[in-house]
Amino acid sequence: MLIKKFTGCFCLFVPSVLALCVTACAGTQEPLTTQLKPETAVKSEEVSVSYKHDFMHYQLERQKYLQALSAYEKRDYDTVKRIHAELGDYPLNVYLEYLLLKTGSTDIGRIQKFIRTGGHSELARHVQGDYMRYFTKNGDYASVLKIAPEKPEGTKLQCLWYQAGYHNGRRNEALNFIRKDYEDGEPFSKECASLVSTLKSGGLLTRDMVLERIRNTYWTKNGSKAYLDAVSELRGDADRNLAKTLSSYYGKPAKYAAIPQSQKEAASLVFARYARTSPEAALADMGNFKDRYHPTPAQEHTVNRALVYALLYNKSVAPRQLLDRLLESAGTPAMLEQRIRLAIWDRDYRAVLRFLDRLPEDRKQAENYRYWKARSLEETGRKTEADVIYRKLAGERSFYGFYTADKLGLPYAIQAVTAVPANEKQRQALLRKYPAYARFMEFSFLNDTRGIRTEWRETMSTASLDDARTIAATEAERGFSDLAVWESIYKKDWDALNVRFPLPYRKIYEQESRRSGTDLSYMYAITRQESMMNPLARSPVGARGLMQFMPDTAAMVSKKYGYPYGGKDELFNPSVNVRLGGAYLHDLQEKFGGNRIFATAGYNAGPGRAYKWQSGDGVRRDAITYIEAIPFNETRNYVQKVLMYNVIYQHLLGAQKLELLTPSEHEAFY
User: Fold this and answer.
1) Handedness of CA 631, 635, 640, 641 (dihedral sign)
2) Bridge partners (DSSP) listed for residue 549
3) SS3 11
4) pTM for this entry
5) Which class does domain 506-667 fall in?
6) What does the pLDDT look like over 498-509, one tens digit per residue?
7) Residue 555 and residue 572: Cα distance in Å, rounded?
8) What is the assigned CATH class of domain 10-166?
9) Residues 6+ apart with CB under 8 A from 253
């Protein structure tokens, strides 16, 4: 079977020198356009002596490869085919084969063969995904299943796969796959939204399912889009009235009592939103709500869930017995964990033990819950049981392990393994052994950032643990410290600390540490958590560079200190980024009296929140209680990781004394 010419516009996945966007739409012969122009290749004189052989070995093939890319842009596919045949075993030739699969008329057998045996798992996934989208768009669901006979990886492609299955007689399987996420109010990608649309058209998504999605999203802080999408599906006069009422009261849920008693469903949803936005007031008004509307058990469950969520995350002073009844009737696993944190904040250690016992077994083994079990046992007079847990925890390299070691007066369990770079003979053997590593090397000579990262992932996925360590240490020496960090993640290799926690830009960091008076290890720890040492890192909200600075914050700090700052793109310059980062960390520590716990929380979530999370009831709490009670999962984990990473960087920098918390941080009032 031949695939017809593409009838839609879409962009191919390829590394940046190959990011060619197909603009040939139905019935047109518009030329291909480049999405990203090829980057400037490295020149021979820029290559270090030890890598000169690698550079020269494929110099002619590299030029032909670039010629093929240029020909592809011009739709000169015959030239691409010719060069592809000439390049033979040139490492990057697989990318030309990938591009030739996209030229408009491709035998589906070739596509299947490339996916199965193309020798490149990531390109195979992209070929599979591109063609699954193409066939879905054209309604050729049988071909979707030929391209993906087994369920593919990734939720987006799975949605396309189930949509194809729906059209081939597996309707209920498709519904069962998406139903829970739909009813729970999860946001959907366009691929999954397409599956949902198909199920709606086929009548499989019922009114009750739509209402359940509304119940699970209307009251939440970030569920407005999912709620609006669901409410648009309501039909009939009664449902249109429901939609109109929900819309009218979305921004003023405290006015719920104005809703007619006949609109019980609408009133319950609006009251749930009131409970989420003003929990104390809603709790006081709960009796009036029930007397007026007599909600059904399902409606009351929705209200109770919103109420217990808001009360827990706001450290409410509501009676704990009431909270526990609400949690029992309408809580979720995440709410149970927040209830544990509230009990820790209350220093109610018997309650901590009671709720810890309700956790799933795998969650009970988390380092924080093992610590709090031991702490609660100790606080309730069961010291012998507590000591067993403490002793084991103190032997682990983790935040709670280090904290417990301090408590017991034991040394930290650093347990480092050193990854050793390859010598030239070993490196050549690794290049022959792993084709992805050879492709990585070629992309480094082409100065292609995206290609480098693509082939690093491929290398790490195929290499053995020992070889991955060696490759990571070797390339870290060549300047790819940020990629070396990923070795530990891809291989779950937590012990090779010199590649997991590299020390790039050492002179810059030392200079800015001295200038700002900020500990060098602390600056490295923040950077490691913020960007994983990638100077070009960019967050979805616009933070940039090594220490993930927001442009507005950078402008503020540069103005305060008189540092040169030419705009947001300068934040990708390590010298600029680290200078501003060191100064900002200094300011935060000064604001919080030198306390790095507050400063770290403030760096992640903002100084205002770091203040807000402190005790306001006059109770003296310790550092570990403050950290565990941080309501944002991201910030809580961030603070723990940065403080732990700081200890590891102290070790790697040769500090005489390793210190998780300073004496003043231990003794501070939280």
Assistant:
1) positive
2) 544
3) strand
4) 0.89
5) mainly alpha
6) 999 999 999 999
7) 14
8) mainly alpha
9) 270, 271, 273, 274, 277, 278
